[in-house]
Design goal:
Distance between the termini: 32 Å
Helix content: 25-40%
Order of helices and strands: EHEHEHEHEHEHHEEHEHE
Strand content: 15-25%
Shape: globular
Structural class: alpha/beta
Length: 295
């Protein structure tokens, strides 16, 4: 049948060495594994999130800040056993959690690695860090293994999701995926001493320039559906990594006015559990070097 892990259902025989829509075979490939300080405070803490960046992506947004790994330009192949060992090495370095970035196309291998690492002493929460374009069936493989879901909800508009992510069905797929995440995880649980999130859901939304109206629709959907039982993270860090001749609206950063209006709208709805960004976060300095560190 071929691969059906993600909503693309490209049916590629990845086990035979063919690359799917994600750009990868089913052999694990990593671009970086290191402590990362630039997540939400309850994820990064004081010591950093043990972040593992997987090569390839099943969504491939045209504005992706991690384009070099999403496009499969960098990465090192590892075994499932080695991935489990990496988890334990990050724990030994003082990581707050194990943070799996763009993991969708490797879910079966990741599930196996988590089980192996737990048998050998892994005790950290597992964070599933995703663009939100997920199949509920694939997420169910992770039930009981993932403690924190950290998905994006990028768009409500099918026009925008088609234009920027080649996924006109993005919202319908993502809201079903989020419902499955919520079924598994429920309301947030924090460590009383450290303030670190131990279990819960943080939904990220990246405000794009000139698309404030759709961002308001995203926030409204999240609050009307989940209230304050999830956290919403409003991001202003959109960085135009390259210039678009056919999509000029993406050729600038988000203005302070746009972002503040989104934050004010969030408050007006009654949202209490939210993270906002302050200062000049739109910078390539927030993009880590994908140099295979820690692999």
């Amino acid at each position: 049948m071929g691969c059906e892990l993600c909503p693309r259902e490209c049916h590629t025989d990845r086990s035979a060495g063919e690359a799917g829509y994600c750009g990868e075979t089913n052999q694990l490939r990593l671009a970086r594994a290191a402590l990362h300080m630039w997540e939400e405070p309850c994820i990064s803490g004081k010591t950093g999130s043990g972040t593992v960046f997987f090569t390839g992506c099943s969504l491939k947004c045209i504005f992706c800040q991690n384009a070099s790994i999403a496009s499969s330009l960098v990465g090192k192949y590892v075994s499932t056993d080695r991935l489990a060992q990496i988890f334990l090495e990050l724990q030994a370095q003082g990581a707050c959690n194990i943070n799996l970035v763009t993991p969708t196309h490797y879910v079966p291998q990741i599930a196996a690695a988590i089980k192996l690492a737990k048998e050998d002493g892994l005790k950290l929460p597992i964070v599933y860090n995703t663009g939100g374009y997920e199949k509920a069936e694939t997420l169910r493989i992770l039930e009981g293994l993932v403690d924190i879901y950290l998905p994006d909800l990028k768009y409500v508009s099918s026009r925008l999701s088609a234009r920027y992510s080649n996924a006109p069905d993005y919202f319908e797929v993502a809201k079903t995926a989020l419902a499955e995440m919520y079924r598994q995880i429920g309301e947030p649980v924090f460590d009383d001493k450290t303030g670190l999130l131990q279990r819960g859901i943080i939904v990220r939304h990246l405000l794009l320039p000139r698309h404030l109206t759709d961002s308001k629709r995203v926030v409204e959907y999240l609050y009307r559906t989940y209230g304050n039982t999830i956290y919403i993270s409003l991001m202003n860090q959109y960085t135009p990594i390259r210039l678009f001749s056919d999509r000029p609206e993406l050729n600038r950063r988000v203005s302070h006015k746009e972002y503040h209006e989104l934050v004010d709208y969030c408050i007006s709805l009654g949202v209490e559990n939210a993270f906002i960004q302050e200062g000049e976060t739109a910078s390539e300095s927030f993009i880590p070097p994908f140099d295979c560190e820690g692999i």
